[in-house]
Succinyltransferase-like protein
Amino acid sequence: MSRLVSWMVRAVWGWARRHADVRAGSRAARRFAAYGDGTSLAFPPATVFGEPWIEIGAHTLIGGDITLCAGMVPGLDLGPEPLIRIGDGCTIGRGSHLVAHARIDLGDDVFTGPYVYITDQNHVYADTSVPVGRQWPADDPVAIGSGTWIGANAVVLPGVRLGRNCVVAASSVVRPGTYPDNSVIAGVPGRIVRRYEPEAGWVPPLRGSMRDQGDGGAGSEPVAPPEV
């Protein structure tokens, strides 16, 4: 009997994973401010709320176990503008978190690995007489340019503004600041380790192998970090 029950549970769970994703036109999709054609939010999600303030473009794939939240808790009136916008043709890796209180904007064709954390809110600790978790947090919008790739387990902090076609190496922590187009950011805290200049090309130059082009620039001599 236990084997039969186990088989039935696995069968139902497998069916749900294949067929219970949120698709355009479904009742779940209509809860969002926008939900484009060909877009899928995989089953099972982890935590999703604030859908009326979340816009998702067309042909975007969002992995399972996702946390996609607008606002502190469900049921709040967050005003007339969306807090999270995900563009067309994006892929958000499983287990990732997008947590917005002010604004998180992902352009088109943004790809992330699994377990990426992006938030526009951070705890503060200025008042030493109050526990950090009880101090009112600070918000700073986040913008991620079209064509950007963010590696697995990376953290994007409030106030980050990534240009187009940037690369964030796996497990990096991207600190607040503006990063120009075609930058490679790596490390904890993250800094620019490679960038493209129209007259000089890639600085430091690419060494030609796929390994060197895919390591997030971590093996290269770093160039100056951005102003923050």
Notes: The first helix runs from residue 2 to 19.
